[in-house]
Amino acid sequence: MQIADLIKANRERKFFAHYNENPKAYDESLMAKGLEVFQKRLNSNYELPGSPDAEFYGEEVSPYLQTGLGIHYPKLAVDKVIAQAEEGFDAWRKIDAQKRFDILFDSLNRVSERFFEMAYATMHTTGQSFLMSFQASGPHACDRALEVMVSAMDQLGYYPSEVDWVKNMGKFDLVLHKNYKSIPKGVGLIIGCSTFPTWNTVPGLYADLITGNSAIVKPHPKAVYPIAIFVEELQKAFIANGLSPNIVQLASDGSNNPITKTLAEHPSVKLIDYTGGNAFGDYVESLGKTCFTEKAGINSVIIDSCANFNAVAQNIAFSVSLYSGQMCTAPQNIYISENGVTTPEGLISYDDALNGISQAVRALMENPKAAAPTLGAIQNDATISRVEDTIKQHQAQAIQMDIVVKNAEFENARIKGPSIISTTAADTATYMKECFGPLIFVVKTKSFEESLSIVKNSAATHGAITCLAYTTDKQRMDKIEDEMNSVFTPVSFNFTGAAFVNQHAAFSDLHVSGGNPSGNATFTNADFINKRYIWIGNRYML
Amino acid sequence: MQIADLIKANRERKFFAHYNENPKAYDESLMAKGLEVFQKRLNSNYELPGSPDAEFYGEEVSPYLQTGLGIHYPKLAVDKVIAQAEEGFDAWRKIDAQKRFDILFDSLNRVSERFFEMAYATMHTTGQSFLMSFQASGPHACDRALEVMVSAMDQLGYYPSEVDWVKNMGKFDLVLHKNYKSIPKGVGLIIGCSTFPTWNTVPGLYADLITGNSAIVKPHPKAVYPIAIFVEELQKAFIANGLSPNIVQLASDGSNNPITKTLAEHPSVKLIDYTGGNAFGDYVESLGKTCFTEKAGINSVIIDSCANFNAVAQNIAFSVSLYSGQMCTAPQNIYISENGVTTPEGLISYDDALNGISQAVRALMENPKAAAPTLGAIQNDATISRVEDTIKQHQAQAIQMDIVVKNAEFENARIKGPSIISTTAADTATYMKECFGPLIFVVKTKSFEESLSIVKNSAATHGAITCLAYTTDKQRMDKIEDEMNSVFTPVSFNFTGAAFVNQHAAFSDLHVSGGNPSGNATFTNADFINKRYIWIGNRYML
Q1: Average pLDDT over residues B384-403
Q2: Could you say which of A490, A535, A541 has the minimum Cβ distance to residue B537?
Q3: Would the pTM of this model clear 0.95, i.e. be above it?
Q4: Each residue of A12-55: pLDDT tens digit?
Q5: Are the Cβ atoms of B167 and A536 closer than 8 angstroms?
Q6: Domains and CATH numbers, chain A
Q7: Nearest in space to A539 (alpha carbons), one of A182, A257, A264, A180
Q8: Record: contact A539-B485, CB cut-off 8 A
Q9: Cα separation of A151 and A135, whole Å?
Q10: I need a surface site. Which of A125, B123, B155, B503 has the fewest CB within 10 A?
């Protein structure tokens, strides 16, 4: 496929995917081979081309096995990482954009040959199910990276590389020869998270690289393996083209010896991409560097009216259960008016609606084929204790999902199905904060108008990445869209069946708006590219 | 001309101008009429459609007459301005982009009918010559505004307004109807300066408006009249389309009662455009809002080698004399190696080169037809005293231009021709700071390499909007471009004749790179547009 075709596909926003998300579409033998490679990697040093003399360290724990993986990664001194990044930058900035594209595309194709290893690496660091691990860390991440590269080729072609500017001055023509250059800013730092170690990291990583910057990847110490695969294949692609592997480096650290702030504050680091919690994200934003943050928000659901309440309840049940609510796009607060939900069969009362959602979650959890693959495992213990503490504080309002879900393959998996707390609009102390993990709040409001007003205010104040709304009333639909968009929150309307609010597709959905406190950047709009370099126009009199 | 054609012209970067910069191209009677309107305006209240009940105040002084203009402008309470801006925003954000374009274009065409009045208004507030006043505040400003509008129409059309996203799920198609909306951020504040009250203000003003934001223009209290003409014609264009005039407001204040910080810090103000000194610019940037700054820098000239030194000296003499060095693009420091300047006739020593530049300035100042129209007048007394203080401190190194330039038309004009201080590379305390106005420093360095190194460091540390370089050596040319571009400073090479480094043309030259301390934004790149709104994608299941 030509770049021009990719640019066209990216602009059209219709369904487009370059890498196949279906593991069954790949050669049957790859699954077993991927597992074998993964197992061989356990209890070994993960050597990288760019880090020959490094010490090694690792602390990953499988949420499925609850034992350490024993994989150790190169651990370099910050000064060395920076010096190598500067060297890498000086080489890479001189490579033209088309060549950069070719090399980076090569790295993605190399990664695609390791999608099954990637799936196991992701499962056993994040706790995602096999299918989500395969899709999110493999084809979906590669598509997001390709989307960034294609967006960049579009933006970098905005001005002609050179032009003759001819101004008639009456008796003569004034001719100036001009060139236009995109000058990369320097060294970029990409700070990863523990739940989506590649999907959330590769957009910033490939955006830095395609625009000519060098990159330092600082993974979460509990989820290094998946992104190490990307770094390795990038380094191999650089070496294959006679370039320094240090154009990209893995700078891993330990929970007890973090290096993120030292890297972020280093004057050589000009660009920072960050995914994670709000406190650290606010710190990153306060540094005054060019930065791209995805922090947390509170995602809301408004249920006003619908054609089929069971379909709505099932859709919500899946969305809140998927990866145990550990997705930044997962709904947390569900707002239903005390007047109930309008349906063709008549009004469904608040209590019946609450019960309907609760039953749909229970049905999903009691489905032995669906429950474990939907939930995956909980990435870390802190999420479990936070959820359990919250439930304890609100025992009277909690609808405990007392079902115990077992994973047949992994008996030690850290699993917890979603719990529900039923509350009222006035009780903001209970529900108006982010509660990451398998816990949702159903909030009884006075009216549709109150629901919308709270959801809007919540997005403006606490941030929101998604908003899911159910209404069959066109006026209310327009009002929700207008009000939520005005606080820079996109709305998904009337999702049932196979459409889930959690899912943002590359080449079509803008992930995080950048306009509310959930983050200042978007995968992938023009700003996500253009802030990484400066346009310079030089003029020559010939 | 169709918008598609304008977008094409803007992308091509070839010479393009929509408004004619030659006053002689306009009807002969317009000059006298413009003067008449200007004179009638003196000592009166400047009424604006949007400010019926305002108090009036003004403090402009003509640099040519050194008497007050006596024009008083509406002065509204900040709370009222903000409330009206919010109202204006709520109406304007609902107008589609094409309609916004038409209304704003109408306003520019209305302004174009007042270009001669505009010229007098600009002369007698800024001290620019008649020709510069006409060009910069009239056609060039309108072209910069149109460039912004065209750039915005290009950016706002990036995504389709709606699309059906169809994903084949094996046994069925998942269809989502999606829309993409550019949501404006809110109220914009544009803070003007005293030397280019429209050219530097209208890009931010029209960028806010074309993207759907409302705008508050806070002019410099000594240069209100020119931008009041824009605000008035915008308000008339809004009214002619049945819209509130308060989509744009003039918020003038007095030097002793400034309201800029109150406006800038108001939570309703989401966007700030600023032109002016560094201290206030740094304050604006520290507010954490979306902001676009053009601050000061130190512009440098490197003279290494040339084909014709006299042509070089004449070009520099004009560039440093034009509007008495009160342009943000004017050169300040000229670096020449102690090894001299290489020319086809042999080496020109440092002293001879210094003398050549000094003689070229003297010749220009002694040319009675050229001197006064080149210099214009000094906008304010502070510039004169700053320059004179600096000369006093460096009496021994100063090459005083003792020529007295008289303006035949305005005997009281505040005029000062350029002075030159000759210094050495080591004496950074003398030359390594911005000295706004008619004063330049010629700096003797050890070598070409030292010149370039100082100029690069100067741009990185103090900022630079332009860099002028003279060299006939291709390797040095490439080195200058590479090194200066790496600190985000554009270079103009070997300008002689009618090409001047001071001049940045709309639809071709990027004004300020946004990558060094001279400012964080560019007239006009994609960022200058895209930061003013947020892309939102909504999804519907039908």
Answers
A1: 90
A2: A490
A3: yes
A4: 999 999 999 999 999 999 999 999 999 999 999 999 987 777 89
A5: no
A6: 3-295+521-540 (3.40.605.10), 300-493 (3.40.309.10)
A7: A180
A8: no
A9: 22
A10: B503
